[in-house]
Amino acid sequence: MIRSRQASSTDRSSAVAASAAASVTRQPTHHTTTVLTRRDFERFICRISLIIFSNAHERVTVLQVEVLAGRLESSTFLESVMINRTGSFVFALLLLLSSSASAAISSPSGAYVLENTHGYITFSYSHMGFSHPQVGFNTFTVDMNLNAEDPTKSTVKVNIDPGSIDSRVAEFDDHLKGEKFFNTAVHKAISFESTSITMTSDTTAKITGNLSIKGNVKPVTLDAKLNKAAMHPMRKVAMLGLDATTTVKRSEFGLGEYVPMVGDDVTISISVELMKSP
Question: Which of 129, 161, 212, 229 could crosslink 139 through cysteines, CB 3.0-4.6 Å?
Fold first, then answer.
């Protein structure tokens, strides 16, 4: 009797386990629900992005996402995500929409001009491989017409007086102002005017435009970064802080003397603070 009861108990346990397994097997497998914490959200986005793009050339089950959106200060936070393996590309669309929406700048739209005490335009090059001199300009203007809601519709203009070139060596400044280089007696301005802006993140962009030096006009692209957009604590005016860089061939602008002994590639660096016009 004892053996019989043990066997019966074992049979019942096996039956329960089998029933549980069958119940698990019968459960739908096409839905997975994941509730994200704020800390996990950014890692979740990165992980899902990798899943989508690393399988771009394979037949993959992509993700359909339903979103409950909530406001967290000035940004939208995704509180809950439901993943449904149905082959839809809604998630990729969501990524595009969320990145576009978050690209708005907090400072108001309008005209911005250079705050003269905090603006720098310099260029550097290889001097026969020995060093990379840093040369700047002391007189220039930077004007931006900002579209805060859609920064890609903004415009930027830069005008530089080449006669204000400053290498910190007066004799070398005169050399650079001469006919072999900037020829400032004839050419009174260097200019850049944007033709398009492409956002590459919330705070970075590629600004493409036309650079004019000594009558030579070439398209160039600046890699720009928004350092800060806020109200100036003392001036009480909206401010933007921007850095931008690009590399050009000086020989393409009539400045090719001593190439290749002295490097042809010139890196232009801009760091400015812009304040909103009244």
Answer: 161
Q: For 132-182, what is each residue's pLDDT tens digit? A: 999 999 999 999 999 999 999 999 999 999 999 999 999 999 999 999 999
Residue-number span of the structural domain to which 201 is assigned: 110-276
Q: Are residues 211 and 237 in the same domain?
A: yes
Of 41, 72, 101, the residue at which a domain comes to its end is 101
Please enumerate in sequence order all residues whose Cβ is within 8 A of that of 124, keeping only pairs 6 or more positions apart, or say none: 132, 133, 134, 135, 266, 267, 269
Does the predicted TM-score (pTM) go above 0.70?
no
Under a CB-based contact definition with an 8 Å cutoff, are residues 244 and 225 in contact?
yes
Which among 157, 164, 159, 161 is positioned nearest to 143, based on CA atoms?
157
Residue 111 identity (one-letter amino acid): A
Q: Could you read off the pLDDT of 227-251 as tens digits, one per residue?
A: 999 999 999 999 999 999 999 999 9
**Whether residue 186 is found in the same domain as residue 267:** yes
Residue ending a domain, choose from 79, 101, 123 = 101
